[in-house]
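Morning run. Coffee first, then this:
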Amino acid sequence: MSDERDVIYYYDGTFDGLMCCVFESYLKKEIPLDITAHGSDQLSLSEIKFIETNTIRSERVIRGISKKISEEALLFIKYAFLTCAPNKDVLILDYIRKGLLYGRKIEKMLADDTVNLLNKAVYDLTNESHLFKGFIRFSDSGGYLSAVISPKNKVIPLLADHFVDRLRNEKFFIYDKSHRMALVYFDNKAEIMENIDFEMPDADEREKDFRMLWREFYDTIEISERRNPRCRMNNMPKRFWENMTEMNRSDAYTGSVRSISENNYPMIR
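And here it is:
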């Protein structure tokens, strides 16, 4: 493969789209300066090449990773794609190139900068998803259990199985406002929706009562003599507080009122 070229790949932001960027890199024997899912109107002196998503090409790359590296490496790459690591797309391309060269040995090459950076990013992703399993607070929104989160990484795919298993008999949705992504569970079917905007409706009186009860419970079980704000922030980082009932003392979420119908998904646009 040739050295780095003065070209930037622009794709649609999907995992299949990124795999097509990998295909294009091998096809043209070039290593792009950057790979971006952001707007093509970014100022740049480099050539910008839009890579169309082609499922046949994407599947070829995925099969190649699974066969020539390992299934575990493929899962690792999928997780890395969900992280907020800077330049993650270029790092994933570099990881795949090295993996196809060294095989599954790449998984243990932690001294390599690319492998090290992606391992740290994936650890941050899985740790954040684990925390959200305990920090998500649901509200009753017209028959739906609804929750809003603001994660750094795209944790929704990692949370899906956990909440579907525990709320199997409910109708619920979890909205990630950082990445405009939602997990919707309705009629025993789960779906992850992307590129959507959602506004939480104001709480009705019944929901306000439940929130008040939860806050009172939270305050009552506290042992004031053992209050340790630093310890609490270590176990419950402040960036999670915005959407946690016990930390938010207002009775309504920010945003205008939107209706929710039992005949369709939550109000999205």
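Residues 252-269 have pLDDT under 50 and may be disordered. Good start to the day.
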